[in-house]
Amino acid sequence: MTDFGLSEEHRELRDTVRRFAQDKVAPVIGDLYERHEFPYDLVRQMGEMGLFGLPFPSEFGGMDGDYLALCIVLEELARVDSSLSITLEAAISLGAMPIYRFGSDEQKKRWLPALIKGEALAGFGLTEPGAGSDAGGTRTTARLSEDGTEWIINGSKAFITNSGTTMTSLVTVTARTGENEISSIIVPSGTPGFTVAPGYSKVGWCSSDTHELTFTDCRVPVENLLGQRGRGFAQFLQILDEGRIAIAALSTGLAQGCVDESLKYASQREAFGHTIGSYQAIQFMIADMETRAHTARLAWRDAAQRLVAGADFKRQAAIAKLHASTVAVDNARDATQIHGGYGFMNEFPVARMWRDSKILEIGEGTSEIQRMVIARDLGLR
């Protein structure tokens, strides 16, 4: 299938991941999802495919790819399952990328190789129970020990992905290190005083790993400061700008998966002597779903190509995330309607997609935050 705007390498990558999603993920993910089980074997296979290293240079074991390649993969995975797609997205965009962007040479050498190979995962500790969209309201603190050799961290974080698996090697947390000063600090898994609560009971993304974290006099070496002291908030705003493109790609994949499943069902299900796909009402509904998925894809690819080219992409990333997440919710609703009662049964993929879609309008910046970003970039204050 020709896909204008993609290189031959990107098309080959897309087709390879599409086959993996259909042949390896689709047959097992429904059962894993129902049991709220993390897909360790699938994650291992993705590591062997080099997917965790896509946007990183070969000097750290990466694939010398780009952010466009990563987003192509996220879309293809989400056409079948979003839990696996968000596991990869968070592992790269929120876990490994901060260390790659802001880490010292020593931090990169220590942590990146295993993360890039998919042998380990990292979390992104920004959100707090009382500070979601208002990330500047961080209450977690980190103070230097009397001898100046350690950071002593106290506080809590909420809704943190990839933070409690047996593969998790670290969580990077934002904390107040002084008055009007937020810094980023690497906290290795198993550090005394670092407690991972049991996994949440979630509406969707039931095969992804999400926990609340608490820090009680948790001590880490002073060298675990990530980047410049006091620049933690600015660093993570940059990371979130990139992550919005990734979530837009994931959202597009879910939206396209709803089209795929609806086409399949409409060609098989009969009502009043005909397949339901022969009725104009269903045809128009699916046509609208395909239109929405197509425009969402155009939006995230525009933002991704701007990022890769080194151009400003902040507004386009917010537009892509806002539009694609809305499209995902709309398509999931319509796909469930097309399936009728079967769409309410968890054995059908659209039920899983319906449950997974809503978080896309919330995670990594709510739709309201995206509108704020767009309006401010247009000069509105």
From TrEMBL:
EC number: 1.-.-.-
KW NADP (keyword) present: no
Enzyme class: oxidoreductase
Names of required cofactors: FAD
Domain called Acyl-CoA dehydrogenase/oxidase C-terminal: residue spans: 230-378
Protein origin, superkingdom: Bacteria
Annotated Pfam families: Acyl-CoA_dh_1, Acyl-CoA_dh_M, Acyl-CoA_dh_N
A molecular function GO annotation: oxidoreductase activity
Acyl-CoA oxidase/dehydrogenase middle domain mapped to chain residues: 124-218
PROSITE patterns cross-referenced by the UniProt entry: ACYL_COA_DH_1 (PS00072), ACYL_COA_DH_2 (PS00073)
Residue ranges annotated for the Acyl-CoA dehydrogenase/oxidase N-terminal domain, each copy included: 7-119
Annotated signal sequence range: none
Keywords from the named record: FAD, Flavoprotein, Oxidoreductase
Similarity annotation: Belongs to the acyl-CoA dehydrogenase family.
Protein name: Acyl-CoA dehydrogenase family protein
Source organism of this protein record: Catellatospora aurea
